[in-house]
Amino acid sequence: MGDFFTNLKNVFVAFNAIDALEIVLFALVFYYVFRILKNSNVFGVIIVFAVLVVATGIIFIANAGLNGSAFMVIPLVLAGLVLIIFNVEVKRDILNMNSLNRLSEKQGHQLSASKDEVERYISEIIRALQNLSKDNIGALMILSNDNIPTQILESGVELDAKISSQLIEGIFFPKAPLHDGAMIVNNYKIQAAGCFLPLTQNANIPKELGTRHRAGIGITETSNVIALIVSEETGIITIAQRGKISRYADYDLLKKTLSDYYWKDLSADGRKRL
Fold first, then answer.
1. pLDDT tens by residue, 159-203
2. Could you say which architecture CATH assigns to the domain 103-272?
3. What ranges do the domains of the chain cover?
4. 0.90 exceeded by the pTM?
């Protein structure tokens, strides 16, 4: 026991800039892992990381002979594991750091809406999706909260238009100029259409899902948005969130998704409380 405390004392006495960097790296790893796990509920991963880091700390303290340079490899390895295991989340955070929506500022979009207005927006979107589905017309709609990367918005055509089923159906009408791109719904306006989105690289996506679905899934992997997708081949409506999909979305699921988007996500921002 005496050796243990002696070694512990030596650790603090020999504390230097490298040791400080190690602590910062460990703190960043812990923060990032717990931040991700808070959203994903991957409890098994938290146990693995906790055991690994605690065991490393005990070994380091019990063996003061391990120099700082050698020990520094451990947090770097942990950081590397985080980047590998959570590469999708890392990409999402990096892109969202640069997702300043300049078009939103330029447009001066609507900041609030009455309950009746929101219900009308929800009904208009659902009506459009169901009509498109019935006619087997492909569509890709993104629900955002000022968090679409600017380069994606600028790849399409700025609209800043009121939400209506007629406009949505018209944009996605076959052979229309903006038919193949994505429509961006930002809060209470159709902000842009004909936008190009990043495709998912997930190899587990069903092979029958084409480019439109891969684009819808891909944007939800890199930005905190919701994608509503209508299949051109089958008319099936799919909802994508955080890289996961829910197929065969019916009226009830669409209603719940849109209600969550308008009443929960938007009301969380004090500027947009209804």
1. 999 999 999 999 999 989 999 999 999 989 999 999 999 999 888
2. 3-Layer(aba) Sandwich (3.40)
3. 2-85, 103-272
4. no
